[in-house]
Request: fold
Amino acid sequence: MPIIEHYLTESAQLQLRESLQRVEGHELFFLGRSTQKDGRIDAIRQICRASPRALMMLYSLPQTGDVILHNLPTGQLIPTQVDEKLSHRFNGKGVGVFLINNEVSELYPLLEPQREETEAVELDEEAMAALLGEEGPLAESLPNYEKRQEQIELLSQVVRAFNRDQVLMAEAGTGTGKSLAYLIPAIYWARKNRERVLISTNTINLQEQIYLKDIPFLKRVLGEAFEAVLVKGRSNYLCLRKLHQNGADPDNLDEYEDRFQLQRLVKWAKRTASGDRSSLKEVPKQQVWSLVSADADTCQRSRCEYYNSCFYYIARRRQMKADLLITNHHVLFADLALREASDNYHAAALLPPYKRIVLDESHNIEDAGSSFLGFQVTRGGITRALAMLLKFNRRREEIGLLVTLAQLLLNNHRFIKDSEQLRRQVLEHLLPEVRNQRQQALRRSEKIHNLLISPDEEQFDNTMKIRVTQSFVERGPWSGLQELGMHWARDLHTLCEALMRFASHMEEATQQVEKQFVGPLMDLAGAINRIGNAASTLEMFFTLPTEESSHADKTLVDAAIDAVVQPDPEEEEELVRWIELRTKDSHLIKFQAAPLEIGASLERMIYDRFGSVVFTSATLATEKKDFSYIGHRLGLNLIPESRFDTACYPSPFDYPKQALIGIPTDVLSPKDPAFDVNIIDFIFESLRLSDGRAFVLSTSFKQLHFLYEKLAPRLKAELGIESLCQGKAQRHVLLKKKIDDERSVLFGTDSFWEGVDVRGRALQHVILMRLPFRVPSEPLIEARMESIETKGGNSFLEYTVPAATIKFKQGFGRLIRSQGDHGTVLILDKRVVEKRYGQRFLQALPEGIPRVIGPKQQVLHALADFHHRLSSVHAEEDQTKSR
Reply:
């Protein structure tokens, strides 16, 4: 917890203590203000005692920059309903709300005030660099510490970016120590300027490395008091209310395994300290976890009986006290979307306020942003939203919110005005309409499927993605699809209106028995919100930009939802729309859209709003340290050149001694249908030479499964080597098995090309099956390539090759992770040497790595020599250890 001196001067603390002693520790409200340059509160005046009239007084008195202070006699700094109301009232208005204990020794900043812009306290670049020097605290705490010049230079670059409000793009190869290079400036900046810094990553692995390894190390070594928290999305946490509600009757689940998992969650809930899904040894199915996980739609906040022990709000209270927020790109974009919608960049949104951002693994930002800045709706999602209202248990009995409310109305009819009328409304109108909408969801998805899939295509079980292009609209079945989609949206809106009228009537009628109804009515509001969002998303999908929307027949739900869901037409960037469906299953249908470009959105949401932004990754540049591809994709060409800087720091490894690249030239082209069959024996022989200890990285699941099925039995029978395959177990389970069984071979695709850290003897051979070009027929990729061509560019060289080069560097980077790693990389795609663009891939790799380019036998001979020498080194090391 940040020490209270960072928020209150000593005189302000003393004044508060004396006031509380005079009233013997009873609840009081104070108004505080800062006249200090450092922003600490030094002017305090007592406003009132806690009373029913206090809230109205507190609503009217504060001005921008003021802070309401509320003491909690219990010493537990958990916001009361009054505190929550004050926070909601003043959020975005510049007024703060702080909670203190009676001793005035602890403080919780529930809502921070808007402070006058003061000149930032700049970091001393030389002093920061010295922390990593040979006489710095890291050198003192680590035996055999070796100064890394690349790390020091990166740290200095980050310091300059913080001091000068710059946007920095820095590639830092594996082993440079980039996380410490940005964490150290972030910590000191946050403490000196009392200004949070947000660190965002793409993978859980890096998040946990930073939070569980780097942060504790820096706390121990730097001697600087600071707080860092790991921020996860709400759905990662257990909801105690939903657990109590749904865990009591597991028979409502059809599958035995689902019932068993739910019972296991009930037991886990009794012993978990965090309620965090990641602490589970075995992660349950998503449909089971969703029954007990926290979600914004149904959260009762301070009205919930479990609020004080709510895992999500305990985590949120810790966030408010933090100097560093460590999160992922998805949570970051969710927070930015809320801030943009409310024009709130000073107060808490999904996250507490922050001013500086570090984006690690930032080569993934375009994908993460495209996913979040677009929208999607599925038939399954609509059905799940309706199932909140009505579904069947395994005994085929109707259950759900509407059934529960009907029963509650019956049980409490003596205390509820119009109880019979409300109950009839449920039984005679709402339940039949929900049943109808569940059936309509199935019928409409079947009709859409039949419009898009021919009888011939139904013979094969494939996933199809059909892009909504101008030609598709003019010559395809668009008019029929649009009519179905718009009718679907209107019916869901009509249902929402009926539910909203019913909910409003229920709230008025159940005031005498409010406690029994508050939970179900909050859940009902959540269901209405989900169904309404689905309807609005359908409407957005089927309303093309060229078509004028009619606002005359807007429904009540439209008016409530449009401000949140509908983008401003003047600011809306061009969207790429497509429909995803399975040829053999008419019920699996997804309507999806994503922005063609996200650069302008990033400029508006990030570059124009935050002081410093640092992009970093081991792979940002293409060949010859060129950042133009990633810079353009992320809209960095839109900001002034004076504010933007780049840097490239290579890995400190001795690649010429640690690695070897083999490229066979007498293999078939990867485009040849016989490629996979013809390459099997060569792959097997290379794995024999490396004694397993390998990754085999494919670019498609089809190829992945073929290789695994052909090679796994041979590896086991002939070499005694176990094989692991992506999809056969969860990613972290496969990685643990790989590390525990050093000789094993792991077959993986997309997600194993990056974010995987296997060191030492467990990984000494990496096979890259082909250059990782993105599938050009993917709707978003296809649209971006067309856009480049329309503007007169070359989409292959400007988009396809650079994107594949960055992915290629990631795959290669799996091999050498430390100074002690050695190994070989096989590139089985001969286009890397036969095509002119192939040199761009090789030039992007670390310099000086020996390459063997030639017939398969020549490559195998080089592999044999390398791994023989490596085995000899390991044998000597083992002998030395045994002595």
Q: What stands out?
A: Residues 377-593 form one domain. The first helix runs from residue 10 to 22. The chain has 32 helices and 25 strands.
